[in-house]
Specification:
Blueprint: E1 3-5, E2 11-13, H1 23-52, E3 58-59, E4 67-68, H2 72-82, H3 96-102, E5 107-108, E6 111-112, H4 118-131, H5 149-153, H6 169-172
Antiparallel strand pairs: 1-2, 3-4, 5-6
Helix pairs in contact: 2-4
Bound molecules: heme C (2 copies).
Length: about 190
């Protein structure tokens, strides 16, 4: 092994050779290590980036489930059209089939309402369909909240006065007029 004298007079091994390992293979190992380290850093960076970025599509609302951004307009139309005579009930409290019959129907529980149609109905429907669930095939069509197992499922053990009345929601849900069913108060 060649030794080179340095300025202070002691010797420094110019190329340290580890016995048994050829110099070329050591270089190879070092570069493989460097590549792995670089990949790890990129991976970690990506991981951190995804961990700190909030999910872009879902927006929490006062309904039940967060609503994707593209359905926000449908929800706004729903609240605009349906929270005038009474509070707008979140679509999740009734089955999908009930909404499908109710929304385009001018005969509304004994009163006449302006039937929804065209793009307004379609946009609103996309939201309502997303936010409600289908009844089972062997279940009857229902029209009243009082008959709704979906409403009941959201009120486990809650002593809701019967028959359920749409004007009564606000006594326990003070935010219902703003379509916010999260805050609760004892009736
Ligand atoms: C012109 C006033 C008016 C408008 C607008 C209106 N409703 Fe109603 N709604 C009523 C009346 C009146 C009742 C019957 C209340 C009762 O008999 O207890 C009712 C009842 C209901 C019920 C049944 C509640 C129960 O007793 O189970 C639902 C659900 C409902 N409305 C949803 C809607 C939706 C959705 C819209 C928007 C498309 C809407 N309403 C728009 C007046 C209105
Ligand atoms: C007697 C009080 C009472 C009345 C009246 C009442 N609720 Fe509720 N509601 C509750 C309570 C308490 C909960 C929470 C139940 C739980 O999660 O255990 C709840 C939960 C809900 C939820 C779920 C909210 C969430 O955070 O996911 C919705 C939606 C809802 N109610 C809608 C209605 C509607 C619509 C009416 C009127 C037709 C109504 N409620 C009437 C007490 C009431």
């Amino acid at each position: 092994m060649s030794k080179q004298p340095n300025i202070r007079g002691w010797h420094w091994p110019s190329k340290q050779h580890i016995p048994g390992i050829p110099v070329r293979s050591r270089l190879l190992r070092q570069s493989v290590l460097a590549v792995i380290t670089a990949l790890c850093c990129v991976g970690l960076g990506l991981g951190l980036a995804t961990a700190t970025t909030p999910p872009p599509t879902l927006i929490a609302t006062g309904g039940i489930d967060p609503v994707p951004e593209q359905l926000q307009l449908g929800q706004q139309l729903y609240v605009r059209e349906c929270a005038t005579c009474h509070v707008a009930p979140p679509p999740a409290v009734l089955p999908l089939q009930t909404w499908a019959n109710l929304l385009p129907n001018p005969n509304h529980y004994g009163v006449q309402i302006t039937p929804l149609q065209g793009p307004v109905l379609q946009t609103m429907w996309n939201y309502v369909r997303y936010s409600s669930r289908s009844r089972l095939d062997n279940e009857d069509d229902i029209v009243r909240l009082n008959q709704s197992r979906f409403f009941n499922a959201l009120h486990p053990g809650v002593d809701v006065p019967r028959p359920v009345n749409i004007t009564g929601c606000v006594s326990c849900h003070p935010g219902a007029p703003e379509f916010n069913y999260r805050p609760l108060r004892s009736p």
